[in-house]
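can u do me a favor
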């Protein structure tokens, strides 16, 4: 009987229902995946009921007692209201999840964010508020004049914050990519207060992936639309007690866009001394946005992919806010998530998940329920290396001087540097996570993510350019969150937590899987016998 050794302690045998794979032992063919788990992607866009009070879970295997805290998750949890249905995975109403782990036990609870959009829709029992890919219907009780007049009013951004959560001191916020965030109670998940970022900062939108440092400083990016749009790097100092944290926020730097139509972005990179912003060829058409309400268009209708535009990497000094004088470019790609970025001997290494084309259209609900597509399809883990010092006499010679990389860069006639990436592994991953607390912005070796079918968790080894995989039949995995072990002795000394949604909860319960982060072997699991949906992003917060 095989045993799993974790930090010197014996654990139960590997649970038989899970699959632990390496690159040399792929047990299922691509055809089998397409026939089975890929079809189960409907579980990703399934509606659920909330569970406001914590419920106990059944534990199999072992939950290490050093894990003491809560895993918070956020994502769409309601796709139907009355007879109306949301069209896009980005549209579903936010459902917040909490897995509280203490003394080897796990409780689970969930609660819908009581956003203005949620309350208005519930009151009307129909979709009356427009989201990213779904148009809200006008109130049938209004007169024809009122309905026509409404088309000339500027559409308000959504406050359906269904993408991620952010923790600042003892406060927690639900986030999306609009200028609104919601403060939530970290114990009850109740919605406390809506915060309008525009009251403190001149931005029209912000990412749901801020970076933070050990002293509590947060950094984020937000766009300002205008005749010449800008990408702003925002610094948020640790909040004083009793004061809103955004009162201590400021714009460190503004990066001018190519023109009026700014690029879409979901995240950015940060090293010890630099920010890295990737301006990609997926654009917001500002004129279309201005006319959207009148023409009856959604926000997704106002986005345009322009592959003739090169990607531009903007490098900003994180101490001074000064933009690096060199313009770095690359062939067109689309990116949601950065993996990590760090400095190495006069270079910046940028790792990210890249798509060759616009994948926004792959995330429509009906396509996913039919098993036709998934937003992770085609994602490739790519590495770019940006030389900070450029030899103007280099010509076509490779400017990248780092060993052990296939990345290259060449000087162009206009003085810009064209970067050619290296694909780190043939593994497809999205929703990447690292040992953030110890290795964000620093040289690192490992990242965890999900595969294109959302049926496996993968661990990428950036040094050896290999990967491991773990999955369970008939389950959809979620973003793996790394939790570092006390007194850890290596980068991957800890566990990976992933919430798994059953394809058929009548036969198999939903799960929280606890995996050894070093080899992806399962240590334990918590069985959840109440309604649960999948989610986008989250974070683990240790108990005080």
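np, heres the sequence
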């Amino acid at each position: 009987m095989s045993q799993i050794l974790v930090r010197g302690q014996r654990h139960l045998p590997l649970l038989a229902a899970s699959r632990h794979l390496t690159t040399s032992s792929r047990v299922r063919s691509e055809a089998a995946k397409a026939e089975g788990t890929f079809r189960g992607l409907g579980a990703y866009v399934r509606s659920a009921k909330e569970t406001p009070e914590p419920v106990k879970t059944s534990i199999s295997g072992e939950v290490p007692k050093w894990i003491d805290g809560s895993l918070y998750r956020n994502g769409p949890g309601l796709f139907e209201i009355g007879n109306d249905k949301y069209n896009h995975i980005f549209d579903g109403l936010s459902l917040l999840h909490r897995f509280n782990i203490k003394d080897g036990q796990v409780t689970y609870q969930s609660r819908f964010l009581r956003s203005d959009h949620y309350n208005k829709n519930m009151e009307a029992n129909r979709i009356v508020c427009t989201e990213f890919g779904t148009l809200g219907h006008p109130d049938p009780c209004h007169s024809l004049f009122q309905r026509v007049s409404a088309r000339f009013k500027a559409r308000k951004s959504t406050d359906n914050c269904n993408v991620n959560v952010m923790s600042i001191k003892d406060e927690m916020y639900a986030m999306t990519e609009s200028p609104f965030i919601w403060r939530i109670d970290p114990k009850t998940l109740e919605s406390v207060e809506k915060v309008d970022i525009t009251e403190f900062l001149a931005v029209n939108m912000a990412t749901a992936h801020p970076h933070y440092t050990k002293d509590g400083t947060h950094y984020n990016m937000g766009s300002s639309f205008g005749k010449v749009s800008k990408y702003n790097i925002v610094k948020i100092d640790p909040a004083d007690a009793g004061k809103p944290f955004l009162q201590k926020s400021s714009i460190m730097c503004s990066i001018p866009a190519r023109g009026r139509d700014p690029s879409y972005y979901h995240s950015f990179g940060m090293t010890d001394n630099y920010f890295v912003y990737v301006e990609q060829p997926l654009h917001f058409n500002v004129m279309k946005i201005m006319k959207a309400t009148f023409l009856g268009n959604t926000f997704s209708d106002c986005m345009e992919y322009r592959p003739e535009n090169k990607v531009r990497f903007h490098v900003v000094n994180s101490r001074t806010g000064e933009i690096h004088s060199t313009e770095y470019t690359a062939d067109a790609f689309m990116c949601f998530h950065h993996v990590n970025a760090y400095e190495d001997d006069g270079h910046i290494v940028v790792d990210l998940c890249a798509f060759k084309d616009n994948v926004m259209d792959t995330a429509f609900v009906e396509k996913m329920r039919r098993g036709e597509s998934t937003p992770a399809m085609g994602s490739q883990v790519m590495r770019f290396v940006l030389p900070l010092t450029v030899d103007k006499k280099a010509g076509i010679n490779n400017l990248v001087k780092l060993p052990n990389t296939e990345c290259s860069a060449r000087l162009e006639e206009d003085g810009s540097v064209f970067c050619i990436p290296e694909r780190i592994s043939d593994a497809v991953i999205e929703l990447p996570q690292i040992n953030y607390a110890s290795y964000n912005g620093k040289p690192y070796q490992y990242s965890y993510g999900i595969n294109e079918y959302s049926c496996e968790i993968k661990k990428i080894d950036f040094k050896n350019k290999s990967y491991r995989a773990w999955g369970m039949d008939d389950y959809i995995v979620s973003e793996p969150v790394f939790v570092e072990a006390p007194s850890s002795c290596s980068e991957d000394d800890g566990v990976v937590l992933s919430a798994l949604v059953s394809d058929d909860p009548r036969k198999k319960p939903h799960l929280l899987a606890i995996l050894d982060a070093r080899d992806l072997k399962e240590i334990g699991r918590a069985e959840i016998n109440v309604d649960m949906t999948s989610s986008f992003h989250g974070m683990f917060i240790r108990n005080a």
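The chain has six helices and 41 strands. hope that helps!!
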